[in-house]
Amino acid sequence: MSTVVGTLQNAWKATELRHKILFTLLMFLVFRIGAHIPVPGINRQVIEDLLATGALFGFFDVISGGSFRNFSVFAMSITPYINASIIMQLLTVVVPRLEQLAKEGAEGRKKITEYTRYFTIVLAFIQAIGLSYGLKGAVINPTIWNYLLIAVTLTAGTAFLMWIGERITEKGIGNGISLIIFAGIVSALPSGLVTLYEYIQVGTANILGATFFIIIAVIAIAGIVYINEGQRRIPVNYAKRVVGRRVYGGQSTHIPLKVNQAGVIPVIFASSILAFPTTIAAFFPDSVLGAWFANYFNFGSFLHSLFYIFLIIFFTYFYTAITFNPVDVADNMKKYGGFIPGLRPGKPTADYITKVMSRITLVGGMFLAVISLMPVFVIMATGISNIYFGGTALLIVVGVALDTMKQIESNLLMRHYQGFMK
């Protein structure tokens, strides 16, 4: 804790970092103001009743920072952008044109980002149409123009959130999209604690169960930090090279392979994908599909949990493969005379790194799945229902906080290096 406070104090003293932090906080303020601007023509009492029907909508409300409960302009949160990013990353692997753009460096990534923005608007409008029609019981005057007005308002809110996220990434500190989700979850924490206190007051929950819940949360946070910081260090030696009168190399170092290389991205991706069909089915409870989802695919059911685990592990491998390429690491080592003891440079080194990475990625993915399903275990152990601030939210909050602190430390380190060079 003292290290974190010291880092924040040093960051505040640095003018450039202070401006970045203030800009990020200002964007948070805009986000929170927007979360209380209601969409016109909606009866919010119907939304309140809908939230009381299940944990799925409660989780939406937590992710959106209360925007779904208020049915504000940010009710859809940043989910369409996340879905668009998932689809674009999948297409990057299978579409040659996008794959070529991804390999062109900054300019190529800029073009892919532009395509993602356009795709986000399309997905947001489709989702907004479905949301406004699905909540037709909450529409005060259900005409086609009112549906279009609600859909356009929600789409504009998502587009504005996307803009805020990109501005935070560009001018603030940390990943803007992740920080928006982080801010939404954290803003719901005080109301969650008040609800827990009210449960104890009315007898819905007891002191022992609440204490057990807090202990589980603390242990989960410690476990998340431990896994996120966990590494498998592969030793690397560099051969000595004599160039003129100078001797290069000869030192030993290591390749730090993170147990959770993908961070919280797999959880966000898996939640977004699973939420889509479940949400659509929830809008049609009287249909056969809606009844099937309610009976067999609701949150905490065996089928839902099974798909959740599978998607988290899949996206853990997928995102790790995108962000870490063992072949490139092996080629760079070979180029500079590096080798892993007992292995030849080149393909054998790449195969070994791939094998190690696959094993620790499985551990990281399974840990993410267990933490994400933590609310199910907590409800069974404590008897406290409607826990929206559960494992997924905890993973996002802790993961984003750690990543943001690392970025602050990196900026501070760069600043000190610049001062030394000057």
TrEMBL record:
The alphabetical list of record keywords is: Cell membrane, Membrane, Protein transport, Translocation, Transmembrane, Transmembrane helix, Transport
Q: Where does the record place it?
A: Cell membrane; Membrane
Q: Does the keyword Protein biosynthesis apply?
A: no
Spans through the membrane: 20-38, 74-95, 115-135, 147-165, 177-200, 206-227, 264-285, 305-327, 360-381, 387-405
Q: Which GO terms describe its biological process?
A: intracellular protein transmembrane transport; protein targeting; protein transport by the Sec complex
Under the heading Pfam families, the entry gives: SecY
GO CC terms on record? plasma membrane
What InterPro entries does this protein's entry cite?
SecY, SecY/SEC61-alpha, SecY_CS, SecY_dom_sf
Q: What is this entry's stated membrane topology?
A: Multi-pass membrane protein
What role does it play?
Answer: The central subunit of the protein translocation channel SecYEG. Consists of two halves formed by TMs 1-5 and 6-10. These two domains form a lateral gate at the front which open onto the bilayer between TMs 2 and 7, and are clamped together by SecE at the back. The channel is closed by both a pore ring composed of hydrophobic SecY resides and a short helix (helix 2A) on the extracellular side of the membrane which forms a plug. The plug probably moves laterally to allow the channel to open. The ring and the pore may move independently.
Q: Which family does it belong to?
A: Belongs to the SecY/SEC61-alpha family.
Assembly, per entry = Component of the Sec protein translocase complex. Heterotrimer consisting of SecY, SecE and SecG subunits. The heterotrimers can form oligomers, although 1 heterotrimer is thought to be able to translocate proteins. Interacts with the ribosome. Interacts with SecDF, and other proteins may be involved. Interacts with SecA.
Name listed for the protein in its UniProt record:
Protein translocase subunit SecY
Originating species? Heliorestis convoluta
Gene name, Swiss-Prot/TrEMBL: secY
